[in-house]
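dumping this here so i dont lose it
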């Protein structure tokens, strides 16, 4: 808890989502409604780790469901063709699907 704060995300999950080390993200807790901003540090590939570090950890309990959002800055022209990447995972944080759809779909088990 005595750390400046961040979120550790497994390298393969970061790559699937296009998130870079030290990129700012917003983390939403679907269990209790908490929201916070922090930065990403790279976790061990294939570990499935998604771990809040430092004071950010107070917003979550083990097993809480989360959405992690990374934003992009772009020109108006770029924004007209941009599509988000949505990564779906199972209970072990293994990728079950990736979509570049305008509207996210439900994960397929």
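and the seq i came up w/
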């Amino acid at each position: 808890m005595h750390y400046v704060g961040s979120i550790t995300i497994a390298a393969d999950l970061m790559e699937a989502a296009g998130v870079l080390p030290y990129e700012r993200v917003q983390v939403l807790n679907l269990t209790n409604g908490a929201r916070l901003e922090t930065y990403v540090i790279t976790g061990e590939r294939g570990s499935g780790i998604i771990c809040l570090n430092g004071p950010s950890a107070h917003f979550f309990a083990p097993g809480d469901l989360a959405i992690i959002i990374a934003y992009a800055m772009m020109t108006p022209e770029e924004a007209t063709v941009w599509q988000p990447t949505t990564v779906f995972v199972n209970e072990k944080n293994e990728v079950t699907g990736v979509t570049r759809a305008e509207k996210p779909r439900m994960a397929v088990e």
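Residues 6-99 form a domain with the Barwin-like endoglucanases fold (CATH 2.40.40.20).
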